[in-house]
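Could you help me review a protein record that somebody else here produced? Here is the record exactly as it was handed to me:
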Amino acid sequence: MNTLILSSSLSENSRSYLLCKAVEQELVSKGNNITFVDAKEIPMQPFHREKSDQMKALSEQIEKVDNIIIGMGVHCYSINDSLKVLLEGCFGKATGKFFGILCAAGGERSYLVTQHLTQICMNEWRMMQLPRVVYATGKDFTEDTITSKEVLERIELFSEEFHTIGNKLLA
């Protein structure tokens, strides 16, 4: 199974990046081929401007993979602006793909923001979502380490289900 993991945060201290790396490690241990994309390395242009070479490459990667995991932070109770630019500019060939969401937020009251991403992916590209979402808050981390046992268990379960269901969808 070929999976693209997109860490969409531009923050140098991104907690959603840490979630993405933890899931990457779990999926690699299950034999998955992972393409890890860090949005910090992509010069981004709004949809009405010419795409950077890195955005074009991401579009091609999305077209070729079997499924996608999106790591996101929460900003003003919505998905972050870099993710919006990448969705609009690079996900045109994501139609019908299986996807999952990893979300890091400052507090516990933003958990419904993942539904905004779900609506975009399901309505725009008819993507299919793993029902389980990993949602973590600031209290689940100590500096650059995931310290919450509960979040680590959720990452393990998310990875197992994503692997199992993703493979069944490919069969």
